[in-house]
Amino acid sequence: MNKSQLIEALAKEENLPLKKAEEVVNTVFGDMEKALVRGERVEIRGFGSFKVKHYDGYKGRNPKTGEVIDVAPKKLPFFKVGKELKERADVEY
C-alpha cells in the first residue's frame, strides 16, 4: 500500500472527501516527522514505534577501488514492529 492508496482507503472507510482524507494523512505523517526531527520517539500501540538511531562514523572501503574512506556519523529513522502486528503478520494462509 502506498500513500495514495492509504488516502483512498481512509476516504472510503470514513466516508470522507478525498481532499479531507489527504489532509488527515498528511497531518499525521507530518507530525510524526516533526517529532522524529526533534529526537522524540513515536509509538503507535499495536503497530510499532519509530525513533532516530545514531550511528558512529567508521572506516569503510570503496568496493571498486579498495580505497579506505571515512564514513561520517549519521542519524537514521528506525522502525520496530509491535508485538501484536508481528503476531498478526505471522499468520499462514
What does this structure look like?
- The chain is of the alpha+beta class and 93 residues long.
- The chain has two domains: 1-40; 41-93, Irregular (HU Protein, Chain A), CATH 4.10.520.10.
- It has three helices and five strands; from the N terminus they run ααβββββα.
- It has helices at 3-14, 18-37, 83-89, and strands at 42-44, 48-55, 58-61, 68-71, 74-81.
- Strands 1-2-5 form a three-stranded antiparallel β-sheet.
- A hairpin with a 3-residue loop joins β1 (42-44) and β2 (48-55).
- α1 (3-14) crosses α2 (18-37).
- The longest helix is centred in the N-terminal third of the chain and has 20 residues, at 18-37.
- The chain is elongated, with a radius of gyration of 19 Å.
- It starts with a helix and ends with a helix.
- The mean pLDDT is 95.
Total strands:
5
CATH superfamily of the largest domain: IHF-like DNA-binding proteins
Mean pLDDT across all residues, rounded?
95
Output the CATH topology of the largest domain: HU Protein, Chain A
Span between termini = 19 Å
Helix share, percent? 40-55%
Order of helices and strands: HHEEEEEH
In the predicted model, the low-confidence regions spanning at least 5 consecutive residues are none
Widest β-sheet, arrangement of strands: 1-2-5
- How many domains? 2
Helix segment tally? 3
